[in-house]
Design goal:
Elements lengths: L2 H4 E4 L3 H10 L1 E6 L5 H12 L3 E9 L3 E4 L2 E4 L3 E8 L14
Antiparallel strand pairs: 1-2, 2-6, 3-6, 4-5
């Protein structure tokens, strides 16, 4: 697994943006079989920062119905990465005017 297949996309929710501003913690959707060590090396190599702590959670996809048909959203894994004080990841920043 390469560093670019470990991290799938940034997690840009309201809660993760508050965590980024207050605790210097960033959220990512990662590969389901990625370990904490693989996530750490991927973030450090791609963004050139120092990782202090990683928390992961496996999310089970919700089931949903449309009429008599039932389906299921896919399962995925989230990782919250805490960076060293002073380090920063430049993601998609919204400018407010």
């Amino acid at each position: 697994m390469t560093v670019y297949t470990t991290l799938k996309k940034p997690l840009l929710t309201e809660k993760s943006l508050i965590e980024r501003d207050t605790h210097n913690r960033y959220g990512f959707v990662v590969a389901k079989n990625a370990s904490k060590g693989e996530i750490k090396t991927a973030v450090e190599k791609i963004f050139n920062v120092t990782v202090v702590k990683i928390n992961t959670i496996s999310v089970t996809g919700k089931t949903h119905r449309m009429g008599r048909f039932e389906g299921k959203r896919p399962d995925y894994k989230k990782a919250f990465v805490t960076l060293k004080e002073g380090d920063k990841i430049e993601l998609v920043e919204a400018s407010s005017k």
